[in-house]
């Protein structure tokens, strides 16, 4: 997975207790870590047979079965992709740290460094902007609107990109916030 913080690890909820595992469906995929989204090979871990039957019935006709290409790519990534994953995490950690440092200097914005994933939630409520996502979009930065996630006043930054693109986005955000009026 994409755990960025050294010393931290992903602990699946179902691993905490057998009783919890019986009521849990764990969904996983190699798509983000190994850049395989187009191959459509996610999987579900459902220890309880009855819950598994219900899950499969609910998926029928809605969720397609993975193709052989997705299975092979996922297996190859899991067996042979540790070097890639380690380098990716190092790169994303650098992007995260750069984004957090820049955001900390921007008036009215706050963010906590995520321990995992390449998405940073930015609290823009102190800016008193009516629509922070639209404000930054008008400056040429496409951030996800927190309202889409029941978090009005927040925006979500995807820092899973080239360092140059991240630097340009952060520069544009800074310029927009420093603009009078």
Structure report:
The protein has six helices and six strands; from the N terminus they run H-E-E-H-H-H-E-E-H-E-E-H. It has two domains: 13-80, no CATH class; 90-178, Alpha-Beta Complex (Aspartate Aminotransferase, domain 1), CATH 3.90.1150. The mean pLDDT is 95. The protein is of the alpha+beta class. The protein has helices at 18-21, 49-59, 68-80, 82-104, 132-138, 163-178, and strands at 26-29, 42-45, 110-111, 119-123, 144-145, 154-158. Strands 3-4-6-5 form a four-stranded antiparallel sheet, covered by helices on one side. A two-stranded antiparallel ribbon has the order 1-2.
CATH superfamily of the largest domain: Aspartate Aminotransferase, domain 1
Percent helix range: 40-55%
Structural class: alpha+beta
The CATH topology of the largest domain comes to Aspartate Aminotransferase, domain 1
* Topology as a string of helices (H) and strands (E): HEEHHHEEHEEH
What is the gyration radius calculated from CA atoms?
20 Å
Strand composition percent? 5-15%
Counted beta strands: 6
* Shape verdict: globular
How would you characterize the largest beta sheet? 4 strands, antiparallel
CA distance, first residue to last residue: 43 Å
Question: What CATH architecture of the largest domain do you see?
Answer: Alpha-Beta Complex
Poorly predicted spans: none
Count of alpha and pi helical runs: 6
Q: Secondary-structure blueprint of this entry?
A:
Layout lengths: L17 H4 L4 E4 L12 E4 L3 H11 L8 H13 L1 H23 L5 E2 L7 E5 L8 H7 L5 E2 L8 E5 L4 H16 L3
Antiparallel strand pairs: 1-2, 3-4, 4-6, 5-6
Helix pairs in contact: 4-6
